[in-house]
Amino acid sequence: MQMDAVDQRIIALLVADARASYAEIGARVSLSAPAVKRRVDRLRTVGVIKGFTAVIEPSSLGWTTEAFVELFCTGRTTPAQITVATRRHPEVVGAYTVSGQADALVHLRAADIGHLEQALERLRAEPFVTSTRSMVVLSRLVETATAVPALPDKPL
């Protein structure tokens, strides 16, 4: 799909504030509200925009502990198997195949260390997991939604 500079600016504005109205976005990109809506609808149809969501502070819901866990798997484990297994665990925030020694990296959030330990034990019990290496997060320094670089000649 071809995206022009206006599409990129619309996406950046939606990432910054998904609740912005089409009229507000249109004023920033020099388009009418209906023209912005048509572009957003097109970007949704082709899958560039997957959806709109609320970003929640996990600690406000009592999930104050998080860790990154390297998974080491048996030789024939596929990314699809890892995906299916990690989706069974409500503490999994994200799971990624990675380069290096580990086969996958899993991001976990839990209420406390005891809860994290239980989640790790359940993850380790998956039949393809041979071992794990965990790193508990001490503090989050930078966390963004999908990063969209601003166009150098067009400040948002």
UniProtKB/TrEMBL annotation:
The keyword Transcription regulation appears for this protein: yes
Signal sequence range: none
Transmembrane spans: none
Domain of life: Bacteria
MF term (GO), any: sequence-specific DNA binding
Keyword terms: DNA-binding, Transcription, Transcription regulation
Pfam families recorded: AsnC_trans_reg, HTH_AsnC-type
Keyword Transcription: yes
Domain HTH asnC-type: 3-64
GO biological process, one term: response to amino acid
GO cellular component: cytosol
PROSITE patterns xref list: HTH_ASNC_2
Gene3D superfamilies attached to this UniProt entry: 3.30.70.920, Winged helix-like DNA-binding domain superfamily/Winged helix DNA-binding domain
InterPro entries to which the protein is assigned, alphabetical: AsnC-type_HTH_dom, Dimeric_a/b-barrel, Tscrpt_reg_AsnC-like, Tscrpt_reg_AsnC/Lrp_C, WH-like_DNA-bd_sf, WH_DNA-bd_sf
Name by which UniProt lists this protein: AsnC family transcriptional regulator
Organism of provenance: Actinoplanes awajinensis subsp. mycoplanecinus
